[in-house]
Amino acid sequence: MNSKNKNNLTRREFVKNSSLALTGSMIASPAFSSVLNNLTKKKKVALVGTGSRGNSFFGKFLKETYGDVIEFVGLCDINSGRVAFSKKYIGVDCPTFTDFDKMLDALEIDLLMVTTVDATHHEFIIKGLNRNIDVVTEKPMTTDEEKCQLIIDAQRKSKGKLIMAFNYRYGKIFTKLKEIIDSKEIGDLISVDLNWYLNTFHGADYFRRWHGLRSQSGTLLLHKSAHHFDLLNWMIGSDPIEVYANGALEKYGKNNAFRGDNCRSCSHTKECDFYYDMTKNEHYMNLYAANEKYDGYIRDNCLWREEIDIFDKMSVLVKYANNVEVTYSLTTYSPFEGFRFAFNGKEGRLETHEGIPWLEENPENQAELHEKEMDNTSHTKKEVKFHEIVTQRNFENYKKIMFPYLRSGHWGGDKLMFDAIFRDKNLKPTLNHAANVRDGSLAVLIGIAARKSIDSGKSVKISELTDLIPKVNKWS
Fold first, then answer.
1. What is the distance between the alpha carbons of residues 167 and 182, in angstroms, rounded to a whole number?
2. In this predicted model, which residue has the larger pLDDT, 455 or 380?
3. Are 316 and 211 in contact (CB under 8 A)?
4. 107 lies in the same domain as 234
């Protein structure tokens, strides 16, 4: 082949000739795969649900970071004003819809992203799977066992696949803990203690929004704890079999002497420690306040309103098929934000913490912590900061690992998760970071079982909720 002919090869001829010449070992070569990937079309993605999570994390961030491999072909939301604003904010030129079925009928979609109110996730997941479209859904997968079973059934019939956006799994600190557990540094696991603390900024904010209604969020045992339950399932490497829980609503909701319609119009701003001035947030004013007229959704609702019916304190006991036992608690009005993780093994103990002020050399501003978790830009601090990870084998001295601290982008997990989804890039394939319909189901089934246990005062078996059969080893 002369140089002229080689330079004038068409795309089709190049792929054909390359395939014939390189059949065999080169097809599996990363370099060859990269060449083919560069020749493929962008993945056509559509988004349903354009609240702050949808238009920032699944919208603007993806457009700016993965615009070379994805193309937004549609945005959908029941609020016409919100979806119109989100189109401009994300920076895309695609049609918008307020009718999801019309969007499915009108567009060719490779991947559907679901970021709607939790209680409606199942509707869009199932409709996407029924059309053999791949679906990425925000946590929790759904909010009750009937909807969970419907999703499981839809996945079994579909050529599309459901991908759970469990970004915590990819977080660098949690990946490190998983590696230590799998190394058997502390022997086989026997129990885990996890205490998660939401502060009076982040925790309180759930009670201002739709999350405060059980009918929409399923309680924080689903909306928030699904992250934590999935982490536990993934780290333990087994399936939950039985749950017992306690919980109550003792701080927010009707547990206050005064209340208002919302923070902007409230007459109690000077006496309310939880007063939130949304007018200082230009983005929220444009996204929410300007579009209240379309669906009546109030972003700065009163967290003392009497209709709130979720729990603000929760404690859960979980037994696993491999006999590991978990004690878990979630606090929603802590003075600080953070967690304590402790893993007890037959040969020792592993533990770490984050955000405990008296254990931190440089405690962070509590009002800014959640913003840093959600933000995918870097937050460089002048001082070097570390996570302290401590292991101690029986009859030996403890060992301390100073693991580099990263808060932004959910401990760095956002970028790694999306790299796996959109670039097929996985730095640690043996750790099973990718989460599917079974993972999504088991995470919410713990929360559903916990909610049922609180309501009934009895323990609940996971096997009674859907037709999933718990496994001793998740990947057996």
1. 20
2. 455
3. no
4. no
